[in-house]
Amino acid sequence: MTISIGDQVPEGTLTEFIEKGTDGQDAGPQAFKVSELVKDKKIVLFAVPGAFTPTCTNKHVVDFIRDAEKIKSKGVDEIWCVAVNDAFVMGAWGRDTGATGTIRMLADGSATWTKAMGLELDMIARGLGVRSRRYSAILDNGVVSQLNVEEGGEYKISGTETILSQL
Q1: Domain range for residue 101?
Q2: Residue range 106-120, pLDDT digits in tens
Q3: CATH number for the domain harbouring residue 38
Q4: 81 is catalytic
Q5: Among 56, 83, 103, 106, which one carries the catalytic annotation?
Q6: pTM recorded for the entire structure
């Protein structure tokens, strides 16, 4: 079953590559419970099929970096990018695109949370395994208030233009 507007996001674990350890937190991959990440926060989330892929890198991430301040000025606490990659890849992608420090690059390495959301994309036949569908969402304290899921390989409704109109 696919998550819908009004639903609480499922519990799960997302991993983030922390560049520099602070306040007792080590550098490197760190796992976080989704319930703790969303608590008392307004989050704009966008998910992509894969790091370093053309549309994800050249359009989706670029648009969210460009519009991050506009998004945050509308009361958003954090912007997340979630992909079915490992934390090392997400960390490298964040550094490469300049997203680090602006967007939390969160890894769902085994697609466990993506599957719990009902937003997985089977790309096994193309040699890419199970990935995430391309989508964006607004989460209020973990409840989905907006959800924009793309069809196929499109990039029409999950970008910043849609998100800014929904905030």
Answers
A1: 13-18+29-166
A2: 999 999 999 999 999
A3: 3.40.30.10
A4: no
A5: 56
A6: 0.93
